[in-house]
From TrEMBL:
InterPro entries: Glyco_trans_2-like (IPR001173), Glycosyltransf_2 (IPR050834), Nucleotide-diphossugar_trans (IPR029044). Keywords: Glycosyltransferase, Membrane, Transferase, Transmembrane, Transmembrane helix. Residues 160-271 form the Glycosyltransferase 2-like domain. Its EC number is 2.4.-.-. It comes from the Bacteria. It comes from Splendidivirga corallicola. This is Glycosyltransferase family A protein.
Length: 454
């Protein structure tokens, strides 16, 4: 694994899916540069300036992952070695691919962690001369995909769309109409309406569509999705949100990607009308390192094997992230799909916003938990106490500023300063979250099963 080699990555992304190795499957997520063909080697800049060959190979493997080089042959995996990259190698790796501010942060963290200060300072200053590279600029384009004729598209696949809603009829109308315009018609569109006083007549206008309605009194986004999945009949489950817009080829693209990449999950991208643009690394096919319950197609067998969404996350965040982690560890392959996109309106009313803050790290009340307890529940469950704390260290300070400024470097800097000034309040918020996540851990999972078809 990357963390076993470039260990400084844990300061940057401590709770990344791929910091853990799957329990099943032989997919070579980290490939050996020496075993790649010339085409894939040409996409990678092999760096021989590290202090050992092992560091050069892991740098190349990191590039391959980020550049969307997708393999299925387990024989291409890069094996771990007893020889690990040096302190300087780690600083160099960080300087090559990440904002230079991470160097300062990591240096401070390691000195206060009683690491050898001489090695740290020497490695830090030596790495300052390393040029930062855009790892995404050159990537695998998968040119064969555009002209690929997927058999699955012509075989009349059965797709069940799962669409929860809460007090958003004006937006829901557009979402359902978009589903009705799909090139591949869904077998069923299962709407789970959690509105307090549901407008049942609203659905009369869609009598030509295969709607199945569930009017649910108890509010819970994962309860809603689980109920819909349990009553679904399709071989493929397609997750959608009520404040989204999609193109007519949305279903087609999801299905095509599953066949072309021999994957189990197609994770579409979301184009937000709030905040910054979609990052460059989501503009092409690569392994998915997140699962978005508003835009993802899943083979039914995945739910049958790993279970449904964990009800511990009802009313909170990260229920989709937890499912994605569970599927990844079980060996299922998920593709980040740039063409299966949706416009996520992120409207200020209804949905999860009505149940509480829809941002996991930005509470609405002064002394409310920061982050939402379910976030820490996920981090502690899959990554342990230490990595969960590291995640808090690099995610809580930026959360002081409003969401719309989350990509603004100047505002992030002021957010970090402000978090120091209001440290006692932030500490109380974090401790509340930690305590509540401990309760969730003690209670355990609430994962229901989806019985395989007879």
């Amino acid at each position: 694994m990357l963390l076993n080699n470039f260990s400084f990555y844990k300061y940057i992304r401590p709770t990344w899916y791929f910091n853990r190795a799957p329990n099943f499957g032989e997919t070579p997520y980290w490939v050996d540069y020496r075993k790649l063909d010339s085409h894939h080697q040409d996409l990678i800049t092999y760096d021989t300036s590290y202090s050992c060959d092992e560091a050069s190979l892991w740098d190349a493997a990191f590039q391959a992952w980020q550049k969307g080089i997708l393999m299925h042959d387990g024989g291409l995996s890069l094996a771990n070695s007893d020889r690990k990259p040096s302190v300087y190698d780690n600083y160099k790796f960080v300087k090559k691919y990440f904002n230079p501010a991470w160097l300062i942060y990591i240096l401070v963290m390691r000195i206060f962690s009683f690491k050898n200060p001489i090695k740290e300072i020497v490695g830090f200053f030596k790495a300052l001369n390393v040029k930062r590279e855009n790892i995404y600029q050159v990537h695998e384009e998968h040119r064969g995909y555009n002209n690929y004729k997927a058999e699955i598209v012509t075989e009349k696949p059965t797709v069940s769309v799962i669409l929860p809603t809460l007090n958003r009829y004006s937006y829901l109308k557009d979402a359902i109409e978009d589903l009705g315009k799909q090139e591949i018609k869904p077998l069923e569109i299962i709407v789970i309406d959690q509105t307090d006083d549901p407008d049942k007549a609203f659905y009369d206008q869609f009598d030509q569509l295969p709607l199945k309605l569930i009017f649910q009194d108890q509010k819970g986004q994962w309860l809603a999705r689980n109920r819909a999945i349990q009553m679904s009949e399709g071989d493929y489950i397609l997750m959608f949100d009520d404040d989204s817009r999609i193109d007519p080829d949305w279903v087609t693209e999801h299905l095509k990607a599953l066949e072309y990449f021999k994957a189990d999950i197609s994770a579409g991208v979301s184009l937000s009308t709030v905040g910054a643009a979609i990052p460059e690394n989501y503009s092409y096919f690569r392994w998915a390192d997140q699962f978005d319950s508003g835009n993802a197609l899943i083979k039914r067998e995945v739910f049958e094997k790993v279970g449904l969404f964990d009800r511990q996350y009802d009313g909170q965040r990260m229920g989709d992230g937890e499912f994605g982690m569970r599927a990844y560890l079980a060996g299922y392959l998920s593709i980040s799909h740039p063409y299966a996109k949706r416009i996520h309106l992120k409207v200020p009313v209804g949905g999860l916003r009505q149940m509480g803050s829809w941002d996991g790290f930005r509470p609405k009340k002064l002394f409310a938990p920061r982050p939402i307890p379910s976030v820490l529940f996920l981090f502690r469950k899959y990554f342990g106490k230490r990595l969960a704390i590291l995640s808090l260290m690099n995610s809580v300070p930026p959360s002081i500023i409003p969401y719309k400024f989350k990509r603004n470097r100047i505002m992030l800097f002021f957010g970090a300063l402000l978090s120091i000034l209001i440290l006692p309040i932030v500490f109380i918020q974090v401790m509340k979250s930690w305590k509540l996540s401990s309760v969730m851990i003690k209670e355990g999972d609430r994962i229901e099963s989806l019985d395989p078809r007879k």
